[in-house]
Amino acid sequence: MASWYGVPFHGRRAADGEIFDMNSLVAAHRTLPFGSILRVTNLNNGREVQVRVIDRGPFAHDRILDLARAAAVSLDMIGTGTARVRIELLGGPNPAIGYFTVQVGAFTDRGNAERLRERLLARYQPIFIQDSSAPTGHFYRVRVGRVPTVEAAQQLAAQLRNSDGFQTFTMRLDPPNDPGAK
C-alpha cells in the first residue's frame, strides 16, 4: 500500500536534507537509500510513475511508500488517498549496503524518550534518540540497534514486538543519524 503527502510538509526539509516539493516526483521509503529511483505501478489502474526516494516513512503499518502529491496525481490516487502498488527499483545506490535500525517509539516529550531508552539499555544496544520535526510537532524517535541487513533489522523488530510488545518500524540509518557512521 502506498499513500501520498503534500501540505503541510511542502517546503519543509526532507530526511535527506533537501526541501520537499509536493509537486515533484519524489517519495518516502523506510529502508531504501536516498537517491533510489523507483517505478511505482498502481495495481488498481495500471498507471506508472518514476520517483526518487528523498524521505523516510510512511509511519503507518500497512503502508510501504509515501508519494509526493504529483506522483499520486500521476497514479490517479488522490481521491482514494492510498493504493495497492508494485515497486520496482530502477537505479540508485546499492540497497544492500548500509545499516538498519528499529524504531520503537516517538514522543513529543524528550524525557519519555530518555526513560524508554534507559529501560531498554540493559538488553539492547545501541539505542539512540533522533530529533525530528513534523507539521504536527517535534518528535523524539527512539531507535534500537545498528545491524547490517534489512533481514537482521526485521528479526530485531520481531523480537521487540514479541518480547516487549512494541509496535515497530524497520528503518535505514542515514548519516548523520547513524550512531556508528564516521
Structure characterization notes:
With 182 residues, the chain is α+β, with helices and mostly antiparallel strands. It has two domains: 2-91, RlpA-like domain (Barwin-like endoglucanases), CATH 2.40.40; 100-172, 2-Layer Sandwich (Alpha-Beta Plaits). Helix content is 18%, strand content 36%. It contains three helices and eleven strands. Strands 6-1-5-2-4-3-7 form a seven-stranded mixed beta sheet. Strands 9-10-8-11 form a four-stranded antiparallel beta sheet. The chain is globular, with a radius of gyration of 16 Å. The termini are far apart. The mean pLDDT is 93.
Describe what is shown at a glance.
The protein has 182 residues and is of the alpha+beta class.
Going by CATH, what is the homologous superfamily of the largest domain? RlpA-like domain
Structural class: alpha+beta
In quaternary terms, these chains amount to: single chain
**Strand-residue fraction?**
35-45%
Encode the helix/strand succession as letters: EEEEEHEEEHEEHE
Q: If you average the pLDDT, what whole number results?
A: 93
- Shape field: globular
What helical percentage do the residues reach? Answer: 10-25%
Number of beta-strand segments: 11
Named at the architecture level, the CATH assignment of the largest domain is: Beta Barrel
Calculate Rg over CA atoms: 16 Å
Distance between the termini: 35 Å
Q: Which segments are poorly predicted (pLDDT under 50) over 5 or more consecutive residues?
A: none
Query: How many separate structural domains?
Result: 2
Main-sheet strand order equals 6-1-5-2-4-3-7
